[in-house]
Design goal:
By secondary structure, the protein is an alpha+beta fold. Helices cover about 30% and strands about 35% of the residues. The chain is globular, with a radius of gyration of 21 Å.
Length: about 425
């Protein structure tokens, strides 16, 4: 097939066609993958592990590390060299960080699937794997029809109403930080939507207005979601190089060149934002060092400014070479959840989140995950996203709270981040 000029339109059209069952669409630099029609799945909640292959379900209780359990369950499936795709929820971290007392037995932790069909779009064109000849023709026709099609019409969402008492919760966290309980926590707020959402159309419209590090669109296990991820939680490549990209420190972006430049200068000079970013990088460095060969952990691009849709952030990259005794899932477990979506020290920050955030986070600040048969792994942070189940649709955003935080400013930061998605929501 010829070169595709608008991969986001193609992926949105495949998802909306509703012909290929459940799916995970994942964009990484230079490549878009639509993975659909699961041959098998691995589903983990706090009380049970369920694996499905060829329609047969096996369920059992589990103990130990959820990362090890999921890794072993994937290895047991006869995947035939196929990649796995899916998500892990924020509550996945509760086991490594001694917070399981906040979970109930049905708390979802992870859901991954092995697809029958994969559609890849990159600079070489379109590759379709696993489809029947008729399905391949349908896919090619859908992609061709998507190119040059009109953008969907948005139904923008007002994100300023806040029934969650966000500023009061931030003030409570600031008091805990000043009392020495921890250094930083990311508290979030949920914005319920009063209508059902067309998630693939929202993805297409939002992707046209965002500059994510990665993006995703999925329908898996009763959950629909689309997002424009600002950063990696973790990647481990075939050379066993572990990478994470902590972002911390935020200002609005997209208000015009003069205002954007002023916000950038303010960001680079703000002591609160600089401290917040520096301690995030320090934590990420220490975490990678736990699983890396000695002397290989290093920081690059320290405190660069990266634009991500409606906001700009301070950003750094931390890398190390995975030691022989550790797996990709070990690296993910030590880096998860992202320090920029949890807190410092991480255990105390996560405890504060379970106490002070409203509702379980689920996919928000979790990760969308891709795993190769060679054990290369990529987990992208789920922020700047929209979520929908049979119970309704919602947005969610947070801000980093430190001792110098002002509740009104942190509330404004959540509004700025919600601005990456809220203007582009499309009604079902």
């Amino acid at each position: 097939m010829e070169f595709v000029t608008d991969p986001a339109a193609a992926m949105s059209r495949l998802a909306a066609a509703d012909r290929f069952g459940e799916y995970v669409m994942y964009e990484r630099p230079g490549e878009w993958v639509f993975a659909a029609d699961p041959l098998g799945t691995v589903e983990l909640d706090a009380g049970e592990l369920r694996t499905v292959w060829n329609g047969k379900t096996t369920a059992r209780a589990w103990t130990g590390s959820p990362a090890e359990v999921v890794d072993a369950a994937l290895a047991e499936l006869p995947h035939g060299g196929r990649d796995a795709y899916g998500w892990i929820g924020f509550e996945f971290c509760a086991y490594a960080l001694a917070a399981t007392g906040y979970l109930n037995q049905r708390t979802p932790l992870a859901h991954l699937m092995i697809p029958r069909i994969e559609v890849r779009i990159d600079a070489a064109g379109v590759r379709i794997e696993g489809a029947t000849p008729a399905e391949a023709r349908d896919i090619a026709e859908l992609i061709a029809a998507s190119q040059g099609s009109d953008l969907p019409v948005a139904h923008p969402v007002d994100v300023r109403p806040d029934p969650t008492g966000y500023q009061q919760r931030v003030a409570a966290a600031v008091a805990e930080i000043r009392a020495g309980e921890y250094q930083k926590v990311i508290l979030s707020r949920k914005v319920e939507l009063p209508f059902a959402v067309d998630v693939p159309a929202t993805y297409r419209l939002g992707r046209a207005a965002n500059t994510p590090a990665r993006s995703f669109l999925l329908r898996l296990g009763g959950l629909e979601a689309a997002g424009f991820s600002p950063e990696l939680v973790a990647s481990v490549d075939d050379a066993r190089v572990v990478t994470t990209e902590p972002l911390a420190g935020t200002r609005a972006f997209g208000l015009g060149a003069d205002l954007d430049d002023a916000a950038r200068a303010e960001l680079l000079a703000d002591p609160k934002e600089i401290v917040e970013h520096a301690i995030s990088v320090q934590t990420s460095f220490a975490e990678i060092a736990q699983v890396a060969q000695p002397g290989t952990t290093a920081v690059s691009d320290f405190m660069a400014v990266r634009e991500r849709g409606s906001v700009q952030h301070l950003a750094s990259t931390v890398r190390g070479v995975l030691a022989a005794e550790y797996t990709s899932w070990d690296a993910l477990e030590v880096l998860f959840p992202s320090v920029t979506a949890s807190g410092i020290p991480k255990q105390a920050g996560v405890d504060s989140i379970f106490r002070n955030d409203h509702d379980p986070r689920g996919l928000y600040s979790g990760a969308v995950v891709c795993v190769s048969p060679t054990s290369a792994l990529e987990a992208t942070l789920v922020l700047r996203a929209i979520y929908q189940t049979g119970a309704g649709a919602w947005l969610r955003a947070g801000a980093g709270v430190v001792g110098q935080s002002r509740p009104e400013r942190e509330f404004e930061e959540t509004c700025e981040k919600l601005g990456s998605v809220a203007p582009y929501v499309v009604k079902a």
